[in-house]
Design goal:
The chain has a domain at 19-154 and 178-233: Spore Coat Polysaccharide Biosynthesis Protein SpsA, Chain A (Alpha-Beta Complex), CATH 3.90.550.10. 39% of the residues lie in helices and 13% in strands. Strands 3-2-1-4-6-5-7 form a 7-stranded mixed β-sheet, sandwiched between helices. It is an alpha/beta fold and 285 residues long.
Length: 285
């Protein structure tokens, strides 16, 4: 399916209404009513499922951009055959690098909004309109699709516990804002044009999810969350070692807290919470 050309860049409409008021209405929007929306999918060795993810995503967006992060399989080839705009790295550079490349492509092409989701089938592309709705309505610059807003969601207790710790640390790292996330590590999120133009921070690997929140809130960008579903039974779900992942993400967040709010990071309570968080995070992914 060919992509429509986006309109010329312009400022998002401003509005004071709660973002959630727009979700139901815009979730029902037909593809022809969704303007200038690109989807960015970072992918590493996702040849088994990337084609179906792309085909579903194309029903809800004007362009699908796949960033093949040094895959050793046919991810890039299959993505092109499915009609995606493909960026390919010869070597694996990590999720942050892949996402930044995809966002830059969408920004340079003039898109007003972008949704990013994982390429492993964990996220449901049919929920793209719900995640994009507050951005398209002009009431949010970053929308996080949260696995934990649906009280009926079947999420293992150990995942909830680990994510609660990570959320707490992420919220502590935010300087000058009142936004509190319920799913700091969600890879299903939407960004406005304004957010895309403020991605001027360094990040590595999976740290980008928390880094984005910590960077955007002090700038006054508007934040929102919407509920999403998630599927954990996907191929290669443990491509990254959960122990190294846990230490890496927590170390980054604690470093941000230490820089902005040192008393919270280096006191005895902070040390105890850190130890608990590391243990919980090991079992989160």
């Amino acid at each position: 399916m060919s992509a429509r050309a986006p309109p010329a860049p312009g400022p998002a409409a401003d509005g004071g209404e709660d973002a959630t008021l727009f979700v139901d209405e815009l979730t029902q929007a037909r593809r022809g009513e969704v303007q200038a929306l690109a989807v960015v999918i970072p992918a590493y060795n996702e040849g088994l499922v990337i084609g179906s993810v792309i085909l579903q995503a194309q029903q809800h967006a004007d362009r699908v951009i796949v960033v093949d992060d040094g895959s050793l399989d046919r991810t890039a080839e299959i993505a092109r055959l499915a009609g995606a705009d493909v960026i390919r790295f010869e070597e694996n550079g990590g999720k942050a690098k892949a996402m930044m490349a995809g966002f830059a492509r969408a920004r340079n092409l003039g898109y007003e909004a972008v949704v990013t989701l994982d390429g492993d089938g964990q996220h449901n592309p049919d929920e793209i309109p719900a995640v994009a709705a507050p951005v398209l309505a002009g009431v949010a610059d970053l929308v996080i699709g949260s696995r934990f807003l649906d009280v009926k969601a079947k999420i293992p207790a150990y995942r909830r516990a680990g994510q609660t710790v990570l959320n707490g640390f992420t919220n502590l790292s935010v300087d000058g804002g009142s936004f509190a996330t319920t799913d700091s590590q969600s890879g299903f999120r939407a960004l406005s044009r304004r957010a895309m133009e403020n991605l001027n921070f360094s990040s590595e690997g999976y740290n980008i999810e928390s880094d984005m929140i910590a960077h955007f809130v002090p700038l006054g960008l508007k934040m929102a969350e919407v509920p999403i579903s998630v599927t954990y039974d996907v191929p290669h779900k443990h491509k990254k070692n959960p122990v190294s992942h846990g230490f890496g993400v927590l170390a980054r967040i604690v470093g941000l807290i230490g820089y902005k709010r040192p008393l919270l990071s280096f006191g005895i309570p902070g040390a105890l919470i850190t130890l608990f968080g590391i243990g919980a995070e090991i079992y989160t992914f």
